[in-house]
Every structure is written in structure tokens, then in C-alpha cells.
Amino acid sequence: MRQVPATLTTLLLVSAISTAYAQQAAPAPAGAASAAGNSDAARLETTIVTGTRTAKSIDKIPGAITVVSKEDLAHTLAVTEDASAVLARIVPGYAESSQAMSNTGETLRGRIPLRLFDGVPQGSPLREGGRSATFTDMGVIGRIEVINGPSASEGVGAAGGIINYISKVPTKQGDEFTLVGRVSSQNGNDSQNFKLGGTFARKTEAYDLLISAAHSDRGITYDGHGRRIGMNTSGSLSDSRTNDLFLKVGVDFGVDKQQRLQFSMSNFKVTGKGNYILVDGDRATGVTNTSERGRPLGAKTEFNDFEQYIVSYRHDNVFGGTFTADAYLAKQAMRYPAEDGADRQDPLIAPLGTLIDQSEIYAKKKGLRTAWTRPDIFAVEGLELRAGLDVIEDEAQQRLALTDRLWVPPMLYQSTAPYAQLSYDIGPLTLSGGLRREDGKLSVDTYTTTYFRNRVQVLGGSLKYNANLGNIGAVLKLPNNWSMFVAQSKGFSLPNIGIPLRNINKPGQSVDGILELQPILVKNKELGANWRTAAASFGASFYESNSNLGVSLSVDPVTNDFIMNRAPVRIRGMELTGELNLSKELKTTALYSRIRGKTTFVANGPMDKSLGVNDVNPDKFGMSATWKYMANADVTLGFTKLMSRHINAGTGSEENTTGYTLFDLDTNYDFGRYGKLTLGVENLANKFYVLSWSQVPGFRNYWAGRGRVVTVTHTLTF
Predict the structure, then answer these.
(1) Angle at 87 between CA 677 and CA 197, to 5 degrees
(2) What residues in the chain have per-residue pLDDT under 50?
(3) Which residues pair with 482 in a beta bridge?
């Protein structure tokens, strides 16, 4: 079949738009925001709540912070609804998107970030399954707040930083309906994606309500050569269906509406359709994996099932401060594609080499997050105290579903973490410092490993995790709209505990004697500068993070699966960002990221081994330009470039990756009451490329990236 000619499609749409505009002036966009509404939105974009629990100006937080605004989201989602692709295009230190259901290798500044949805952790550090980036329909998200670098402010798991996806809120008085229809295609009927979504928002003096539902049906994907891309061995978004339901309702009450009670619920599930099977490529000849029609191994298709409930309470006048509390319950279930590898075999079930099985991870967590913020405490102007207590109970396990075998035993982590944070504004200087105390306990029962790991019995036990996690920083406002910051902080994470537990193969071991289960403590130092005016902005950040017992990934030569290595890790990097408004109609942005990571080749050896692409992203450079050529129309052209890299030459860890440059285009035209029409083109030049992390040998992981994808979206609001 012939590929869709994106350039022709673009020209036709622009021509149609121009004709429609020439015939009659378009009416004002429906529901256009008032001046006051725009002012509120502007104030929102200069504050952040992640890590502070209450709104705080970005200019007073020491560290590099990225806020992915509603506008940024709209431009990226016009091109792709890949949740991690949004971050890869906008956040300098975020790695290349895997373009799959799995987010393995998608690090932030070379370490695994903590992903939150409205403040609730997604996935489990007990058994990180690489699926925590696909947990909701992106149409529900109003903004994304990213704290770059290790942080303990939101609890366990933020060795690389925090990414908080924040749901939309009703902003317009009265009722508002939004309907979204979306169609994308690459190469004919089997590549077409369809989406239909609807949102109802109501805002009154008594309460506010948001209900959103969406259904997506995805076809297969093609590379730049017009060849089907292979189904991912950890789960594909290609050939899948997604259903999402989100509800949020809140009521303000009490004297002067100083109190608020809110409930939210999210139910998201993406399920593979099972119409294609993976066909391995050949690295020697440069032929990447592909897919052909057929039923996959095993009897069940993969899925991602995320469900969470939150009850929130806020009181704006508790002993002169603001008190907030969030109680939550979250459940996740992840099923992976079937495999017939050596680690799945068991002669008691079937002859060796013939057994097919697939794994499932189940995780459940419940917790309580509290915060009390008091400005001008102790009658000192500019002195603010934030304190609270976080309690969490996290459970996880992994099973081989088709034969009902235990692979990773049930694990329970319980944590209590009190914290206190002070900030002090003294003229142009803001000082901040605080401490979080992590008191955690891991419990695992006695269990027996699989046949591949010699069926050894591992004695259960418990480990305690105690750490004092301090931070200190300063922000200095300088003349001519400049500011500088310096910060030092600690992060705390658990090391994907399920992997070493399932890999034990020697008898006589117990859970409380395994080195690999020790926590990851990361110390981070950062220095940066910012310059902001109404017409332009610039930011630079230089950082170093160290962990005496860090984590890096390598590949098992027998199973081709990941092995977790515990050794010292040092990561250094720099980030540059910029924005320039050349006029009211033309805006440009740019970013650059450079990360270098080191660890050891041998235990207690020198740190002379460079971290590879599964841990540290190659250098990245990106730019975009948005031209608002009419009051109700705009077009954005952007590109992202990953550089080539050659490391560890002449060693068994030698790694050579070839970079690539991808262009994207999106254009919008608002027809007022008839809705907004959006055209997005991903990989505009239809470039063929191999994903960086697929250029390194692993388990059947030789995948090309997506070729040109043309998407048309119609959004109607009334």
C-alpha cells in the first residue's frame, strides 16, 4: 500500500482553511477566556505544587524545574498521544521515548524518576515493571510538573526526580462539554488509530465536577521504510485498545469557603488485541524486528490496568496556616507477552524448550499524605514552615500466569516519613532547608525460586530502611531579570527488589542478607541561572549526583534479560533551555542536555566505566517555532536530535549508538462554535531510524522507530 503523503495532506488542509477564511470571517472561539481567566492561567504557570503540596512560585524554588503547560501538551498531543514522548520533547534530561507500553530505559538525568498522578505514585519500586508511564488518557492531564534531580520530597522512588501529571480542573462557571475525535494513519487500514473522548465540566458556587471518558483503538505501526515494526517484548501500544474513565468532584464549604473536600477516581486499561506476532530481525544485516499477522504465543494478551481513588481535604485556616490531607488507594496489574525463554522452563510441567509462559505483576498501595504550611511563622516576615507526615503501605508480587507459578514473592513495604521544611525570603534572597526522615520496613515470606534458578528455598525476613534526607538551597534575584540558584539534596529509592529475589540460585540465603536489596541513596548538587523577561527566557543548570551503592543495568548473556548491578554511580550533566518571542505571532524554544555517567567495571574498582544507553541518554538538542498566523490559527514546527555516542571502547561493555533527527509539525484552526481542527505529523520527513536503546543487544530488542504518522483531531467545546 502507498504511504500517506503528509506534505500533500498539509497543503490540502492549509488550502481549505485559507478558502474558508476568505469566504467569511471566522467567529470568535467558543468559550474564549476572559482577561481575568488568562491572568489566573498565567499565575498558575508560575507556581508549582509538586514537592511543596501548596502553590509556590518557581522563582523561589532552588533547582531546575520544568512545567509542561496546557499549551505545550496541546502541541505535542497533536502529534502523538505517547505520554513519554511529551516529556522527551520538552524536558531536557528526559530520555528517548521507548514508543511502547514499556518505559524501560526512560530515565530522568540518568536515574529512574518517581511518576505521580495527582500526587499518587504509579507502579511500585518493589517490582518496577517499566509500565509506570502508561496509566491514564493524556486528555485528562492539565499540566505536568517535573522536579529534575534526586528529591525526597514526595517519598520513595525519586532517585532521578519527580514527574507529577496533574489532572484538569473546571475553570469556567456553568456547564461545559468537550468532545474529541481523533484519527491517525501511516500505511493503510491496519495502521489506523481511532479515538473518541468526552469531558463534562461543571463549576458552580456550591461545587465543581469533572467527568471524562475515552476509548482508543490502535492499529499496527510502520517504520520509515514502510515496514511493520515488531511487537515489543514488554508490551506494545500498537494493536491495542484503551478505555479510560476519570471522575473528580469537589465542594468548598465553611466560613468564607475556607475548607474543601474532594474525591477523584481513575480507571484506565490498555489491552493488546493479539492480531500480530513478533518476527525477529538480524543485527548483522541491519534488518530490524517486524510483525506479521497471527496469534501470539500463549493464550492471553498483555494489558496495563491502573485504578486509583483519592479523598482530599484542605483547610485554609488551621493555626494560621493551610492544612491538606490526601488519602489514596491505588491498584495496578500488568501482564506481559508470552515467552518461551530458558527462565520460563520447568521439566515437571513440560519438556525443556517447549514451555510457554507469561508474567504478571500485581501491586497495591494505600497511603496518607499530609502537609501544614504557615507563612510568617514565629511572627517573622518572609519565614515559611511546611511540615507533615506521609504514611504508605506498598505491596507487590510477580507470577507466571499460564502455569500459576510464583516468580517474585509477595513483598510488603511500610513507611512512615515525617518532614519539615523552612524557607526564608530576605529581600532578593530566598533560603530554604529541610529534613525528611524515612522509616521503612520491607517484609518477605519464605519462598522457593523457579527451576531455572535451581528451586532453592529462600528464607523470608525483613529489612529496615532508615535515612535522614536533608536538603538546602538558595535563590538570589539579580538585576536585569537574572537569578541564580544553588542546591544540595538527597533522594531515596528501593532498587527494583523483585529482580534480585527471583534470581537467587544458591541455597541457604535469606532475604535480610542480600546486598542488592540495600536502598539507593543519592546525593545531588546543582548550580544554575535563569533570565526571564516578557519577551524571552534562558535557563542553565549544572549538576552532579552520586550514590555509593547505585544501580545500573546490563544484559544477562543467557536469558538476554536485564541484570541489576549494584556499584557506585556518579552522574554529571548540564541542561540549557531558552524561549524567544520574536513577535506576538512568532515564538521559538530550544533545549540542550548533556549527561555523563560513570560506574565500575569490577567491585571496588575505579569509576572508569561509562554508563550506557539503558541508563544515560545520549546528548539531546531540540528546537521549535510556533507561528500564530491568524487570531484563531497557528502552526508549530519542531525537531529533536539525539547525538551519536561511542563509549567503553575495547571492553566487553563497548557501546556504539547512532543518533538521528526527527521533525514534527502541527497546525490548528479554530472554527469557533464548529470546533477546532488540528493536523499533526510525527516524523515529518519519514526518516528511518533505530531507537537508541535498541541499538544495544538485548532480548529480541532490535526495533526501528515510528515513520511518518498523520493525525487529524477535531475538538468541539460547547
Answers:
(1) 40
(2) 1-44
(3) 478, 531
